[in-house]
Amino acid sequence: MRKLAINGGEPVRAPRNPWPTWPVCTERAVELVTEVVRSGVWSYDGPKEWEFARQFADFSGLRYALTVANGTVAIQLALEALGIGAYDEVIVPGLTWQATAAACLEVNAVPVLVDIDPETYCLDVAAAEAAITSRTRAIIVVHLYGAMADMDAVIRLARSNNLSLIEDCAHQHGSQWRGQGVGGLGDVGAFSLQQSKVLTSGEGGINTTNDWDLFQKLYSLRNCGRPFQDGAPTLQSGNYRATEMQAALLLAQMEQMADWVAVREQNARRVDACLESIMGLRPMLRHEGVTRQSYYCYSFRYDEALWGGVPVAKFREAFAAETGLAVGSTYEPLNNCSLYKPHTKPRYRISEAHWAAIDPGGYRLPAAAHAYAKEGVVIWQPFLLAGQKDIDDIVNALQKISQNRDELPSA
Ligand SMILES: Cc1ncc(COP(=O)(O)O)c(C=O)c1O
User: Fold this and answer.
1) Per-residue pLDDT tens over the stretch 219-247
2) Residue 205 CB less than 6 A away from ligand 1
3) pLDDT exceeding 90 applies to what percent of the chain?
4) How many domains would you assign to the chain?
5) Backbone torsions φ then ψ of 237, nearest 5 degrees
6) Which of 10, 193, 309, 370 could, after both became Cys, cross-link 410 (CB 3.0–4.6 A)?
7) CATH number where 78 lies
8) Which pTM was predicted?
9) pLDDT (0 to 100) of residue 411
10) Chain-centre distance for alpha carbon 379
């Protein structure tokens, strides 16, 4: 009799045993949103927006935070605050959500795609260095899923080449490198607050910085160019503000944020330890500089050759069948991504040279392609808030699949 659930065997986890859901609805959130509704202050720099900004900055060990419309806008405003515009080149990792590169297009800059480090799925620092030209103005590092690039090397590279450093922190509210919160390791941080993220107001974003001048620029850019302080010069910009209702939802979550980050990290490390013991599975590398790791997703690496040619898709299916989790692959690499199509937007044709430069098709991203097609296993974060027994189910499922790997068909 075959044992794996994918082959009709009994699953490790009973199908009716649900995983934690997300977002979490608390009475505190209802109370704070109700307060806002009754207050008549629904937007425009309300007290809860400033209170949230202060709390988030404190939580991350940063000087300044500002709520904005969403995470994509947060990257765009970071670029604009740093003075990056037409024809400037911005180095972007080739494996990320399309918004990282799309935000560069919005300011008429050229996203230069570079490959990833297979150990972390984050920016490959050597590849970034090789991509620097006289037009390069900035690097965007993405703290992807639940791993970080070698941030010492990234910071060194940016500084030694006089480049601005933007952190795309959409996935990692609360991560720390050598005790410093992400969003403060470079010049400007950009966070997403979209519904699936570890801190969420449905939609929304945050910009962070430790620099007073950049903070004032970011404030103006999000608010139609109005100055932060009376009498200061105005800027050209639009409305990228968030609302007071969003701030109320966020404030309610801030009360649990540190605990949630800690529980996810503790559970992820248990799964890491299990993966270490199974041939052909590997956790992502945790650099010694990581002092707190936040997880938007839990990702790990599968080695098809060590599984006798069983395709990663079959492994993912088997894992999903045992646990009831949705188990997916990584993002599509940006040189061949169904949602990254710069040439479908005529307004990006500011010159023929620029139009050619923003074509993603010419980049070679072998490590990203391998992660996507052959290796990456990615699970969205809510399961990491589950209890010890639930995490045992994950560990038992991985061990069971490994012990019965001969039941899985090779390609
Ligand atoms: C890595 C990354 N960057 C940027 C964004 C953009 O954030 P938003 O959806 O809030 O615009 C996302 C959102 O999914 C993301 O995953």
Assistant:
1) 999 999 999 999 989 999 999 999 999 99
2) yes
3) 99
4) 1
5) -165, -175
6) 309
7) 3.40.640.10
8) 0.98
9) 79
10) 13
